[in-house]
Design goal:
Number of strands: 0
Radius of gyration: 14 Å
Distance between the termini: 48 Å
Order of helices and strands: H
Number of helices: 1
Structural class: mainly alpha
Strand content: under 5%
Number of domains: 1
Largest sheet: none
Length: 33
Amino acid sequence: MIVLLILKTLITELLLKIWVLKAIHAFGESGSS
């Protein structure tokens, strides 16, 4: 149970980081053009 909670938290953080990086990358590309 605890392991599942930890895994869920790690996956959520990873997805958030990926989403933020994609948003920053897209914002940078639209800004440069």
